[in-house]
Structures are given as structure tokens and as C-alpha cells.
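Re: that chain you flagged

S.,

Sorry for the slow reply, it's been a week of failed gels. I finally had a moment to sit down with the sequence you sent. For the record, here it is as I used it:
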Amino acid sequence: MNPMSATMTPGIFLVTLALAIAALIVLIIKLKMHPVLALFLTSLGLGLALGNGLIGSVNLVNAGFGGTLNGIGVTIILGSILAMGIQDTGAATAIANFFTRLFRGKALELAPSLTAFIVSIPVFGDITMVLTAPIASILALRRKISMSSMAAFTGLGLFLTHALVPPTPGILAIALMYGADLGLTIFWGTVISAVAFFGTWLLMRKWCEKEWIDPRPDFVEGFEPAKSDKVEDIIIHAPGLPNAFVALLPVLIPVVLITFGSFAKVYMGEGTAARVFFTSTGDRVIALLLGVVFTLVLGFAKGDKVLAHHLRTTGSDKESLKEILFGTWVGRGLLVALLPLLITAMGGAMGGVLKTAPVIKELGVMVTSSHIMPLLVPYLTAAILMTAVGSMTAAGLTAAGIILPMMDTLGLSPVAATLAIGSGTLMLNHLNNSGFWIMSQFFNLNTKQGLKYITAPCMVGSLISIITLMILVSVGLI
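Prediction finished late last night. Pasting the C-alpha cells below so you have them in one place:
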């Protein structure tokens, strides 16, 4: 322990942290610096300000980066490869058609929204936007629904599970940092996300319908409005689409296996064959790998569709189906995985620097003696950091690093603290978040419309999430 860090008061620490966050904002927004480099420089500066010295600060950054990468690196890569299969086999379109039929062509904004809700569990949020935006645009044209509604609820669906349900990388890394049971985190994160989604939809549906926004022309080229209200006239017809249940399996396989694995640890006897099986297949890497394996099998089954999609997107018909599945999918997945992987790991580095500060324990005692509800401490910390930093992953991991040394004094379970931080990262998704701009571009929104139909629904969803979590904690379920 260095002398400077040991003698730092909570007040000085908070000022130091505020200056570090302000520096991060300036680097990203004003100087247009890449978030990975901005997080690295801020983490290094924070380590120096906390009295760790240059070498000590570098070592802390390396340890935090490597530790986070160790926990989530392979899962991000596997999730990205899985996403390529979902896209090329038409699975995302099949899932959207399933929900269109389920709701009999009514409340059609729910079809791409619930598709995004499901797909965003193993797949990084930005990738889910790419998968669902064309579907939402086509359905908007066919049923004459404003893109304001499509953007609001598709974005809400993907951001909720991105923030609250592992194995999405950010919340997965936080759960691992806290030692939270992954199966319980997935189960309760899904429950809270569903309550927040439908609660927000019921509250904001009519408001979102008031402004008309056309879909992007390039996404609806070749499509026309539906000739009638019949479901078969509304759904997206494309040759070779998989069955809806089969289309859902790449997503459901890893989620179900991880959840079963967690329950097996609690309810099955030590050393029994069933426990060994379920805990082995419930390992997050093995579960996602099995999801990828199934997606490859689906790729072979839908070979003509995969080849046609490859030709349409690359203009090349030289690759064989095997080359596309085992080579192109992996290569595309690695390119897609690189940015979220590095941002998540560097966010973990900043959290790693923060959690080593001895003063945080003293700060935790001060917070608990202030009589603020313990669950609100991680929630508000994450919400403030999200407002400032703009990355749900970086904000969540930084908040987790701050709160970790306070856990004993707060008296929260690891699952409750993890989900409170996830709920907080939903609070202010605005101009400094790259996902805000990607979503605005893909759903044809200007900046003002983005604030109305991306930021506002996420804020309402965040509030419903934390209220739901409070109720679950108060009755002893979490």
C-alpha cells in the first residue's frame, strides 16, 4: 500500500474520480479520441493520482485489462461468430416472423423488439442493431408504422438484455468480478428486463406513435406496403428461412445451458453424473461453443441461403460453403468482436485501478451511515458514470470497481449488486454513446429524435428495472 493512497480522504478521492471522468469525457467527445485509448490514458492517470507510481499504475492497468479479457474474451469471440450465422441463415428474420404471427400482425413494433431482446443476450448490442434494423424497417413499411416506434422499442429490447443478461460481455464481466451466480443472474436479469420492457412499452407506446418517421430507403428497397392486414401479407417472405424454433436455438442453447448449470450446482448431489454433465455444459465458454456448433449445423442445412447471402454482400461466388462457415464467418466474427472486446477489457482496467484504493472502504462506511438505500448506491454510481462516459460496458465495469470494496458494508448479494449496476447503465444513453449514433443512423433518426426515441425509453426502462429489483430484493428472492 502506498502512503499517498493510504492517507487519501473520501472527499479527495471523489474529486480525483470526478476529474478523471471529466478527462475521459474531454478525450472522447472533444478530442475525438478512440474510447480504448481514452480509457487507457484515464486509467493510467487515475493510477498516478492515487499514488501508485508509473510502474505500479501500468501494472494495475495490465492486471485489470488481462483479468477482464481472461473472463470474457472467448465469449465475445464466440458470440460474434454466432451472430454471423444468425445473419446469414436468416434466423433473425425467422424470429421476427414468429413474433409477427404470435401477435397476429398487431402491435408489430414488438416483432423486431422482442427479436432484439432475445438476440442481444449472447450477441453484443451494436451487432444486434445491424441484424434487426432492416427487419424493423421492412415491417414498418409493410404495416405503415413510424420508425419512432420501431426505434424506441427495438432499441429498448436490445439495450435491456445488453445491460442485464449474461453472457453479454459487460454484465458477464461484472458478474464474474462479484462472483455472482451466472444462472441466477441470467434468470433474474431476464425477468427484470421483461418487466421493464413491457412496462415501458405500455407507458410510452401511444407517445411514440405521434411523430411519423420513414424507414431508410436502402433497407426497404424492393418491398411494398402489405396489401391487407392478414399476417401472411405482412411477414417477410424470403426463400429458405429456418423454422422459428430452430432459428431461436443458437441463442437459447447457451442461455439454457448456463442457467441449468447454475441450478445443478445448488440442487444436484456432489459428484453425481447429472451434476457433472450440467455443470460442464453450463460453463459459459462450452455453452456458447455448443451454440456456435449448432449454428454451423444450421449453416450447412441452409447452405443455399448462406451462399446467396455471401454472394449478395461480397459479390463473390468463389468460396465453398465450408470456406464460408469455417473461414468467413470466423473472420467476420473476429473483426466484429475486436472493438467490444478491447473496450470491455480497458473498462475493466479502469475498474481494476479504482478497486485497489483503500479509501473506498471508508467511503462505503460513509454511504451506509447516510441511510441511503444500499441498492441505490451501485445503481446511481453506474447511472452517473454512464451519463459521463457514454459506454454501458465501461460505465458498468468502472462502477463495479468502485463498489466492490464496499460490498461488505452495503450488505448486498452479488446478484443484486450486479443487476443494480446493469440497471444504472441504462439510465442516460445519449450523445456520447456510439450505440446512440449507430441506432440513430440505422433507424433514420436525427439527433433530437434520437434523444426522444432512444434516450427517453432507456431512462424509463432503467427506472422500472431498479424498482423491480428493489421489490425482488425486499421479498428475499435475490
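What I noticed first: The chain has 23 helices and no strands.

Talk soon,
D.
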